[in-house]
Structures are given as structure tokens and as C-alpha cells.
TrEMBL record:
Keywords: Magnesium, Metal-binding, Transferase. It comes from the Bacteria. GO terms for molecular function: transferase activity. Its cofactor is Mg(2+). The active site is at 32, 80 (proton acceptor). Homodimer. It is an enzyme of class 2 (transferase). This is Isoprenyl transferase.
Length: 256
């Protein structure tokens, strides 16, 4: 057994310095740095993506093992269509494989899986696998895993505006009755809620059009680790940092 496997095994349960009562309920992750990970090893950029899937597979297991209720990951943005076609094909194929190969694991762990984004524009075989995976896991009662695919935060907000505008036009909604709760019912994250913690790898300090509405009060954790190198030890650090934060949601503490 390698040193890394020994460390990972010892982190099978929530590390003892973390408070299980103060874990983030929902974690969102921008999985950045696959290309650089491959380049640093003298490999073509796209070789980083399969290793990115390995890191994602372990993160899903880790979140489930440690009691996280919802995990949302950014797999493909509406802007990623500008990448070389070969790379787009590889990512689409990897998402499809992941949704198919992990089905047994999702069943064992009772993980409910959904994709969010403009799914109608995805390749036909991925759309079919998406539907199968969502159908097969729909009744699962455990962690919610959401894979943002062809997702854009601005597009999501516009779509919610269009839905509300249509109701106003039909005379079923007064503009003054539009509030945060009614707006949120038209977002993809309805039922999952806002992330408490947003993790971004590879050191970039950007939101990159991810969950623009929902991250209003999320704690942000940025690590220099490239996504394929993100492991349970790094997740431990992210959660430890989260538990040190003072979440005030715009308020002041009574003592201040
Ligand atoms: C960012 O790295 C990563 C992506 C755009 C794709 C993320 C995809 C995966 C982890 C694999 C497939 C996903 C699933 C859900 C199975 P980058 O290529 O932008 O890296 P760079 O910034 O170093 O170039």
C-alpha cells in the first residue's frame, strides 16, 4: 500500500478535529487545473481530464463518508464549447462514462444524481445516459450530487427571469410579488439550496459564471492544488478552514 493510500484510508471517517455539527451542508466545486496537471507531466492537456474524474470519484465518496448532504460540481460551462472539438468530445465521453460506471456506487450509497444546465444541447448519448442515471437514482435518499454540464450562471438567471416574465404576461403573477423565494424556485438548484462552501482549485481567484445567484453568502476556499491532485487531505483542509470562518451573513455580532 502506498503512503497516499494509507493517508486516504485513515480519512475514511470524518477527521476528529472537525465538528460534525458545523459541516457545510452543501459544497460546490470548480474543478480547475486538469490541463495544467497534464502539461506539467509533458502530456497533452486532455490527458488531465481522466485524472480529474478519478479525483471527482473520490470526492463524491469522501463527501458521502463525511456526512455532506449536497455536492455540486462544475463539469462543463456554456463557455467551454470554445475549446478544441477533440477536448469537448473527451469531456462529454468522460461525463457519460462516469454516470454509467458509478451507478452501482450511487445505489449502494443512496446518492441522488442530477445534471443541471442547458441539457438539450448535449450529445444524444449523454442525454440518454443522463436520463437513465437521474431516473435510477431519483428515489435515493442520501447525498445529492449535481453535475453542472453546459451550465452558465448568467444563463440560469436569465431563464428564471423569462419564466417569471411569462407568468406576468399571462396575468398569473404581479411584478411586485416577485421575491427571492419565488425567483429561486426557477433556478436549477431548487431543492438543494445555496452552497455553504465554494471550493476552487488551481489558485485562480474567479467565480467563472458558476452559481452566480447562489454564492452570495458562500464561504470561498481557493487552493493552489490542481484538480487531479485534490484529495481527502485537501478536503480536510478546506473543511477546517470553513469551520474557522465567522459567517455573519451581513450582520454584526452583538458584542461588536
Ligand atoms: C478545468 O480544467 C476542468 C474542466 C473544464 C472540465 C472538468 C471535467 C472533469 C473533471 C472531467 C469530467 C467530469 C465529470 C463530471 C465526470 P482545465 O482544462 O480548464 O485546466 P487548465 O485551467 O489547467 O487548462
Amino acid at each position: 500500500m502506498t503512503a497516499k493510500q494509507i493517508v486516504d484510508r485513515s480519512l475514511k471517517t470524518l477527521p476528529s478535529d472537525l465538528d460534525p455539527q458545523r459541516l457545510p451542508r452543501h459544497i460546490a466545486v470548480i474543478m480547475d487545473g486538469n490541463g495544467r496537471w497534464a502539461r506539467r507531466r509533458g502530456l497533452p492537456r486532455i490527458m488531465g481530464h481522466p485524472r480529474g474524474v478519478d479525483a471527482l470519484r473520490d470526492l463524491v465518496r469522501c463527501c458521502d463518508d463525511w456526512g455532506i448532504k449536497a455536492l455540486t460540481v462544475y463539469a462543463f460551462s456554456t463557455e467551454n464549447w470554445n475549446r478544441p472539438q477533440k477536448e469537448i468530445n473527451v469531456i462529454m465521453m468522460l461525463i457519460e462514462q462516469f454516470l454509467r460506471w458509478e451507478l452501482r456506487e450511487f445505489a449502494q450509497r443512496q446518492i441522488r444524481v442530477e445534471l443541471m444546465g442547458q441539457l438539450q444541447d448535449l450529445p444524444e448519448s449523454l442525454k440518454q445516459q443522463t436520463q437513465r442515471t437521474m431516473d435510477k437514482t431519483a428515489e435515493n435518499q442520501g447525498m445529492r450530487l449535481t453535475v453542472a454540464t453546459n451550465y452558465g450562471g448568467r444563463q440560469e438567471i436569465l431563464q428564471a427571469c423569462q419564466a417569471l416574465a411569462a407568468q406576468v404576461q399571462q396575468g398569473t403573477l404581479n411584478p411586485e410579488d416577485i421575491d427571492q423565494a419565488s425567483f429561486e424556485r426557477h433556478l436549477y438548484t431548487v431543492g438543494i439550496g445555496d452552497p455553504d462552501l465554494l471550493i476552487r482549485t488551481s489558485g485562480e481567484m474567479r467565480i467563472s459564471n458558476f452559481l452566480l445567484w447562489q454564492v452570495a453568502y458562500s464561504e470561498i476556499y481557493i487552493t493552489d492544488k490542481l484538480w487531479p491532485d485534490f484529495d481527502r487531505a485537501e478536503m480536510h483542509r478546506a473543511l477546517w478552514a470553513f469551520q474557522k470562518r465567522d459567517r455573519r451573513f451581513g450582520k454584526v455580532k452583538p458584542s461588536r
